[in-house]
Batch of 2 targets.
Target 1
Amino acid sequence: MTDKKQISEELKDVDMSIFDDDDDAMEDDINQVDDHLANVHLQTPERPSFQPKFFFTLPSDIYIRYNSFANIDIMKKEIERLQPIKIDIGAVYSVKPKDKKTVNEKVFKPLEKELVFDIDMTDYDEIRTCCSGGDICHKCWEFMTIAIKVIDVSLREDFGFKHLLWVYSGRRGVHCWVSDERARKLDNESRKAIVGFLEIIKGGAEMSRKVKLPHILHPSLTRSLEIVKPYFGSLVLDTQGVLDTPDEWNKVLDFINDTGKNKNNNNTWYHK
Amino acid sequence: MLKQKSTRTNRFTAATNRHQRVYVENGNTNLPSEYGSRLNFYSKAPPAEITIEEFETYALDRLQVLKTLETASLRNKHGPEFKKQVDQALEKHLPLKSNLSQSPNLLEERRKDHISHFVLRLAYCRSEDLRAWFLRQECALFKYRFEQESLEEKKNFVAGLNLSWSILDQSEKKEILDKLAACTVWKAGKTAQAAREMVHNETYFKVDFEKVPDLINRRAVYIAQGKAYVPMSEQVSIVMDEFRATLSTALEATSKALPRMEEDERLKPILLNVEKQYIGKDYGVSTTSGGSVRASDVDQLVRQHAPLCMSNMHTSLRADKHLRHGGRMQYGLFLKAIGLSIEEALIFWRTAFTNHTDDKFQKEYSYNIRHNYGLEGRRVSYAAYNCMKIISGNPPSTGDHHGCPFRHFSQGNLESKLYSERLGAVQVNEIMNLVRDRHYQVACTRYFEVTHSQYGEKSKIDTVEHPNQYYEASKRLAKESQDDSGDAMEVDR
């Protein structure tokens, strides 16, 4: 638990400072926000009726949806009034929320939405030996660091995105918000394609070996390999100790031999 | 005419060197330019007047072709059998000869193709399900025809589309040659040298990555700064995506204009009739199961009648007291289609997720369950997934249990699973062979036969295309046998 608090402390400033109640610093904050977050929409005068939607969770679990604001002052006042404990940022819709009920459901469509990635530590449960489920610690957090490095460089170099914001999700992972205009306007097919491009794990709970790549790698994977290589010895072998105990090395053997044949390896490992 | 080894560079390479785009002139001057190729993007409505009879017959003929395409692809995705069936249907209902054939009927054929497409657009634009079905089949038909064209015809057609793809110039290509080669190795042969040669000789297009989602998804091309470098050979993919995008937008526009069109009293009955012909049972929007299944019945019903994909998820749900999103969707919609009402569904999932507090369940899961039943958000009652969607859609990842076992389990795990369901070695091997040849649905159908062998000949059902079809067949057999034998006997496996 201490590790969680520590990490939370370290990353606290990244996303919460924009809501500081300091009027003098508001100007600076707006510029900072402009650079990173969805609020950039509020600044465009050309389309005043198109605003991103905010979703507030209040204490005692009251959930208010589809709030939108004409400018940052109104938003600030509303947040001060409601004091939400959680704020979610949604898409820019084709219709203002107060008109929502008067329009056919099908017309109410999202027009723009940041591209957001969510990495959860539980996705590493099959390969981390120190924690599982909701727990995180400095040992397995290194997996997260590696993931961030790999995805960050791919989004920038492969896809050309520039406005990336990485934040601690509050519990056991990170989020990456891509707010380039090109990213906001992506349709579902393209978003799925980006994820498909990044993903190398294929297979559910019933598949042991989930990474199967050709001998000559795609340039993006070659680059990722170079990022990942230096960590193998220190993180996977030493810190995580995946070859230290029979339970652990058997999992590794499962990766290598999925067809159920060749259990001879097991004995060789043990004797070593 | 002697065939000589050409020493000229092809026109595209030459144009590349001049930093130009290539527009090709249509060689065949007998046909009007919009019918110059037998391929068609259907961007413009047919200009001619037609009779009401033609309106209906053309539509039904085309529908026959689309139906055949769907069934043939379900049974046999790529083989010669597939081609034979589709060719037969095309010959009979919608012949479309190529320019080379010099047939006198080219114009008539192309006109019919054009008109029939547009009539079907009217018939199938009404709802999202219909549009999705029509889009799928039209894309399949277009792809089928496109792949049959000669290289020359393809180039001409694509050039005529004016899609403004820019060609990669030589100097830039040289800089990234190795990277391009790394992406083509699997095609060029195993050696890096062969790959580099292929890249050197091939024409490449530089397009925005959004235009080729399929290629990006498969990581089949090199990308940098948001631009994808696509070789000519992958042209099919780009053209297909353009076709799909164009048709998708057009269908939405048509659906908005439909009310006005239906004011013509002659058209409405025909359109409704065409629609009724066939889109396959969708087990969703118009489910007639009436909500008679209770939460407490699910365990037994699933054990006795559900296909392997659903029983697998059910087992995992019981074991983990949890199921991830993909599984909740696939399994949840299946349960809705067998007759689990929203109230019973909430009870079922609530009791299944025993480790969660009431609060947490309410916050995180009940909204989504209600959403599936069309009680939230867009208020669309989702249809249960058919096999095609499960097999080729959202694949399972770490910790997921959804998908199709015949497709997504590793061979070892699938075999163990089949043995644990008390199948004999001969039967397991039969099924494994089908799986190895990628006939997942046939494998599932065989699995049904084997597990329902007590019904003898009646266990031989049509190829499973939908998990609920499997379930209903199983239930029907049980009911029939119960009626026959006259007493309340549920067969235990």
Note: The two ends of chain B are 72 Å apart (CA to CA).
Target 2
Amino acid sequence: MPAKRDSHSPAGKSLPERGLLLLIVLVLLQGSVLPLGAASSPNTSRNDYVDNPQVKVGKSNYTKKAFPVLTLDYHHIQAPFEISLWILLASLMKLGFHLIPRLSGIVPESCLLITVGLLVGGLIKLAGEDVPPVLDSRLFFLCLLPPIILDAGYFLPIRPFMENLGTILMFAVVGTLWNAFFIGGLLYAVCQIQPANPSILHKIELLPCLLFGSIISAVDPVAVLAVFEEIHINELLHILVFGESLLNDAVTVVLYHLFEEYSGAGTVTVLDCFLGIISFLVVAIGGVLVGVIYGLLAAFTSRFTSHVRVIEPLFVFVYAYMAYLSAEVFHLSGIMALIACGATMRPYVEANISHKSHTTVKYFLKMWSSVSETLIFIFLGVATVDGPHHWNWTFVTVTVLLCLVSRVIGVVGLTYVINKFRIVKLTTKDQFIIAYGGLRGAIAFSLGFLLKKDLFPMREMFLTAIITVVFFTVFVQGMTIQPLVELLAVKKKQEAKRTINEEIHTQFLDHLLTGIEDICGHYGHHHWKDKLNRFNKKYVKKCLIAGERSKEPQLIAFYHKMEFKQAIEMVESGGGFKMPSAMPSTVSMQNIQPKKPPPAKPVEKAEKAPSQLPKGREEEIRKILRSNLQRTRLRLRSYNRHTLVADPFEDGFDDLLIKKQKMIELEKKIKDMNNYLTVPAAPPDSPTMCRARLSSDPQSYRAKPESDSVPTIHVDLASPQSPDSVNVMDEFRRAGQQRGGERGEEDQGLMMRPHKTGEGADGKDPQKLTRCLSDPGPSADEEEDQPFLA
Amino acid sequence: MGASQTRAEHQYQDLADKTGFSFEQIKNLFQRFQQLSGNEETISRANLDSIPALANNPIRKQIIGAFFDKRNQHQDEVGSCDQIGFEQFLMVMSHFRPPNLRTTDEEKEAMRKEKLRFLFNMHDSDNDGTITLAEYRKVVEELLSKSGEIGQETAKAIADAAMLEVASINVPNMGPEEFYEGITFEHFEEILKGLEMESRMHIRFLDVDTSTMRCGKSQS
């Protein structure tokens, strides 16, 4: 028996996982076979149509057949079925990759997905069927791309983005232009050499080359996201490359349309160039404007959704999608519209919608973008198999080479200029990562696919070259960037969550720097930022945020958010006072409050709980937390498409199960122990509280009535500490533990604890007997010095 | 020309060495100083108070106070003065210089310490070397003062939570009876080390005269 188990464990696979892999293979086969069925069914449907008129005409000839009990009617549901099958396949693939132990560490997911796509495409082709045109440009641009971009735009970290906006714009606009012209021009030059042996290359003119250059020069947001998310690089580099990939869309759109338009004509005049520049401004600014308008509309709508909370997420998605489509109507930059929409609406919408809606929005965005990305890569593989291809060694190799070279030169040159204006200069390492991170992806491929054959006889060659470049960047650069990052010791992402001290000082710094600028007398960008903030607070927030929250200053909003999160965690963890923190500390409010002399008389009125009476549950929870706010550096999972940001509820489920078990055991132990004590088991207390209680006698041993889930503030008059800190926690603990005790058995998933990292003592049991100084108590667990309000 | 120029240059050279500004920057700041002081030799708090743009700033008092704080002059004096001259003005401004490409790591470290020290002095009003809970509460209250009608309690709560955080990070294993006196400079450095002060706490000092042009950005 043990031997068998050992043989399982190195592979890490157990029976369910093997079953899953088998399922994946089956779905794969099914997916490739069904198009067979699909391809043949149109024939049958045609036969039906042929038959039907006969049936209609010769109704009198209609002979009665036996009533069909079971029929097969595939083409009725063919389209949705195939779509669902693809999605299922994509998702199962994702699951599968993570089951294989070390694969996802070495090979980025995008590569694996492309490989799967190649396999599926190969299977379909082997079966002799037509590969469905999966990377149809309409499908791609209208369905697959928007979720990814919206996800990126909604969760865009605004502050670093704005701080580096100049740099990002330089890279996006000037860099892409440089790439396009360099690649296009040099390709044309290369194609023209060797006049002795005229090859098909000579037929390519300049404009198609430039068009090709503009298609291939744009850094692709999907590929960048896919690769960069796994390497956890520091925020600055991430936002630079990612921001560039988003903002270069405007340039790409203009260049593409410009060259496509005039490829037919054959020449481009100066006027056309001038119009192109104007067009660029219109496209970019127009796209942003459209996005902002829709964003404000969404924010305004969310102000009124307090009664129909369930459809709040819908507004976010639909308004954003409408922004994208509206921008596409006018050939403006849809990507920039989406980004602007998401970034604009986010602060207001989040202030208005409920917590659950917020979670829903987050989850849905991540889910859709994840599925979209997977599908895109698989389709890329499938479409590669499909072709049509025309391989030309010279063209393809020169393209790949030129892409690399132009990217490097572009980045180095631009950085030289940019560093003159930046405070935090970009080092050589940074430049290398930026250059290396310039991945091309599916957008380039789709744009190439869109080219019309009659205008561009070289379309197939272009497509082949594009696919080669995409494959090269995704496979080679994608796989090697992680080891290179390690090798170069590039700064990685800081994992710690923003603390309240940092928040306070960020605000303080903002005001300080604005003040110094005012004293200096010039209007620097702090001044303008401050002006914008004040405008925002005074006018915009009043319009767009419902109720009282419009007046809430940012610091308080941050604080409340933090409290709320911790309240939820505490409530859902059953009041157990093992609050996870990266550094378990024993510090609590009493350590920082200045020492007060113990009250002379334990009189009720003197030591009333803090003057504000609890207005509502939120107020109570807030007070509880204020006295126990301990969590400092939460271990924040880094921003990743596949795990959600800072969601403590999902993690540590294993810990949760272990804890539940321990709690159940402890309960049993305590139940046993209860039989030995002569006093009724009072709820657990800290040693200090116990000592305090002893000093005033009768209260400490009265079993507190079972409280409901609302923690009430109960003042214990004998405590030497500040009254508002300690007892609240006790009450809460008691409430939670009572609840936890009852529900220990049946509770399935409500008691989630946040993921605990970096701390040793796990099962600090929440249930501890009151320890009287004269009666140390039998349980061995009580030996540990339980930190107060850990 | 001639003698007066070299005297001014000599003076500026002195200042440039001490504070690290360039000649152009010193000249511009001197013009601003003249403007603020009404062509006097020194400026007082009232002069700074009268800047209209500062009126909206919630921490105005602390900022003005920092100019008159002797601790920011790096001469190991304490207390505050009522009038400051151009040199002191420059000294305070020098805390906001950005690092450049040639700054070495040690210099960056020293710069960060200096800037953090400036912030610390702003918080530690009684100059006892620690920021006590009361002082920190005052800081948060001032920060929130222009933001409207939130009560005292929230500011107090936020300050308490922040203090708790500092204590938890720096002295994690405090027993229940011990008392955390206040934030010392080392603890202050520790909690703010994630913010990279040397790159954040700066403004662009101008090389050109902006009294004629009113736009903000130019090279520092």
Note: Chain B touches chain A through 74 residues (CB under 8 Å).
